Amino acid sequence: HTRHLQCMAYRALGLGWGRALAARVAFDSLESSVASRRRFISPLLGCLVRRFGGFYPNDPWHQTGTRSEPRGESARRSEASPDRTETELRGLLEDLMGARQSRPASLGMDEAADALTRWWARETRNGGGDPAPLSSRRASVLVPLSRGPDGGVQVLLCTRSAGLSTHAGEVCLPGGKNDEGEEDVDAALREASEEVGLTPRLVKVLASLPPFLSKGHVSVRPVVAAIPDDFEPVPNPEEVDRCFRAPLESFLTKEGYSFRDWEFTRGKRIRVHRFQRGGHDVWGLTAVMLVRVAEIVYGRNAEFAMSPPGPGGTDIQSIVSEEHPSANMEPPRSMM
C-alpha cells in the first residue's frame, strides 16, 4: 500500500507510470545506506530514465530519432520542455533522500562566501587545489562578488575598450595574461587593479576554479573574490570601456538565455552560452565561468544543459589545448 502511494506521488509530480515505477524502484534500491545510494544514483538513474523515458539530461530541446539541424533561438525558447528531465529526476530523488541541500534564492554575500570557501577547502583536500593548466599560455580573471541593492549576490563585469585588437566591445571579467612565473591569484589581482582600480587590499580571495580553455587556446583560471559593496570601479580607458553589475543567480536561469553548439576542435563540440543581462551580451568563456560559480554558491545546477548531447559533445573544461588544424576556428558569427 505504501509503495502504491509513493508511485502515485511520483505520478502527481508529472511522471508517467513507467517513469514513476522506475523512480520507485530506484528509491528502493538506493535505500540501504547513504553511501551506497550516493555512489549508485547517477548510473542507475541514467539507465532508468533512458529506458523508460527516452530523453536526454537537462536538454528540453533535444530531438530523439532522426537528427536535424538546430533551430532558431526563438523557437527553442518558446517550445514547451518535457515533463521531467534526467537532471530533474535525479534532483527529485536526492531531495527526497536528503542527499542534496540547495541554498535559498535569498542567499546573501556572507553565505556565498561561506559556500565558496567550503568548496575550495574540499577541493584542496581532494587534491584539486592546483590543477594543471590546459595550455602553455596562461591567463587569470577575477570574479568580483559583492552584496547587491536587494541583499543578493552580484558580480562586477566590464566591457572591453572598442580600440582593442581582440575581443573589442565584449563583456568580460577583469583579467589578462599571466606574467612569466606569475601565480594565478597574483595575476588576477594585478589585472583587476590595472583595469578597474580594484586594489588588492580591498579583495578577499574565496576560491579558484579549475582552468577553462579559451577559443584562442589560452588556459584561463577564474579567481573568485569578495569586494566591498560600495566599491566604485575606475575603468582604464585603454582596456575597459565601462563596468556594470549583474545578479549572480541569474546565470542559472533561462531568462534571456540562448546557446549555440560549436565544434571547438575536430570531433569535440561544446555549448556556447549567451545571456542578455543589463542590456549587455554575456557569452562564451565569461558566461560559462559565471554559471560554474553560481552553481557552487547556490548549490544547484543550471536550468539548462552545459554540454551538447550526442557523440562529441563535451564540457569546455575537459578539453586540453592541442596542435590541430581546427585550433583557430572561429565561433558562429551570430555569437560574436
Give the tags.
11 strands; 336 residues; three-stranded antiparallel beta sheet; single chain; 21% strand; eight-stranded mixed beta sheet; disordered C terminus; alpha+beta
Please provide a written account of the structure.
The chain has helices spanning 2-12, 17-29, 34-52, 73-78, 86-97, 109-125, 184-196, 284-298, and strands at residues 138-147, 153-160, 171-172, 175-177, 204-208, 212-213, 219-226, 240-247, 257-265, 268-277, 280-283. The chain is 32% helix and 21% strand. It has 336 residues and is of the alpha+beta class. Residues 7-15, 29-88, 90-100 and 323-336 have low confidence and may be disordered. Strands 1, 2, 3, 4, 5, 6, 7 and 8 form an eight-stranded mixed β-sheet that branches. Strands 9-10-11 form a three-stranded antiparallel β-sheet. It starts with a helix and ends in a 38-residue tail after the last helix. The radius of gyration is 21 Å and the shape is globular. A hairpin with a 5-residue loop joins β1 (138-147) and β2 (153-160). The longest helix is centred in the first third of the chain and has 19 residues, at 34-52.
Please summarize what this structure is.
This protein is an alpha+beta fold and 336 residues long. The protein has helices spanning 2-12, 17-29, 34-52, 73-78, 86-97, 109-125, 184-196, 284-298; strands at residues 138-147, 153-160, 171-172, 175-177, 204-208, 212-213, 219-226, 240-247, 257-265, 268-277, 280-283. Helix content is 32%, strand content 21%.
